[in-house]
Request: fold
Amino acid sequence: MSDLLPHFQSVGSDLYSRGMVSVHGGNLSVRDDNSLVITRSGSRLGFLSESDLITTGVEKDDENTRLASSELQVHRAIYRQSLFKAIVHCHPVHATALSFLRHIIHPEDEGGKIFIPDVPIIGFGKEPQPGGAAEEIAEALKTHAVVVVHRHGSFARGMTLEEAYVITELLEISCRTLCLVKNLKTGL
Ligand SMILES: [Zn+2]
Reply:
């Protein structure tokens, strides 16, 4: 699985440089049949190395499971319920801010309207927990490319990490635009 490292590094670096994760925030995974490769608990997405990639089971625990990201249960639930092969979880500021106030996000810019017209907010009004709402997130990702967990951050899925990243970036651009337009309207 060592050929995966450049993909993890590229996406992790893009997320960090664009401010969508703090130093130790967020996690990435790729599925291969009954196994998945996920970032290590506490790893720095902007500076990943081979030892930060943890291989464990989609269904079963093994000796590596305890090293995996605290969101492992969410990643597993998504893979159990779908055929997707990659997941990006991060904390995009504008999307997360909107999750405090809305049950669903409807982008109004053209890209967002076309590709992510409805973005569900998961667990609205509940206290977010690491690994929490796994089944609810997995269910929503069957029909939506990305969801946002209330007061926490986004989960995007795809067939590659790059695809899930593009969706995540699109979400944050759409949410930043929504926030700017709202501010401009209140200033007029
Ligand atoms: Zn998180």
Q: What stands out?
A: The mean pLDDT is 95.
